[in-house]
Amino acid sequence: GENVEQHPSTLSVQEGDSAVIKCTYSDSASNYFPWYKQELGKGPQLIIDIRSNVGEKKDQRIAVTLNKTAKHFSLHITETQPEDSAVYFCAADNDYKLSFGAGTTVTVRA
Amino acid sequence: EPEVTQTPSHQVTQMGQEVILRCVPISNHLYFYWYRQILGQKVEFLVSFYNNEISEKSEIFDDQFSVERPDGSNFTLKIRSTKLEDSAMYFCASSVTGHPGELFFGEGSRLTVL
Question: Residue B101 and residue A97: Cβ atoms within 8 Å?
């Protein structure tokens, strides 16, 4: 089955700086790659996604890139703010079920 | 904004006891899911449910687990005889089309097995 690896496990950034989280996947058949944000006591919420026919997608301060050849994808958050502090999960879809990465705890220092 | 609701938010049970976790999916959604997250580990797919039957299940979802949609609104996960390793956060999710891009997750039910 699909195996998704995510790095780093924790990330501390100064407010206003950028944060980058990287994921790799194993199954070349995976074709959809969402990113979820999980705040304390809440369920994962979709923040951005990318499909395998696209290399990059941007939504305001967040962007995702996908390299299908290398089987890796990344989340970029620019101009980080305190409300960006959360756990972020990458995931890969294979056959309509998601395989998640282990999560990255992002802390934005004021 | 419509949301997936789960109860209880936290349940503590003794090993060997039966547990039922409840979920109310978003009302017009047709596909329902359970995922779980053991503390410090990945979120893992358990089962998907559509048209009143299981459409897919993972290796984790063994005979101790069952799901049911007993009425038009609830979607339940039952663990027949809990084990210590069942301690986890259980997330219910639902979607209209079944595509993962349209999954809405609940806030989770934390199960602690003693």
Answer: no
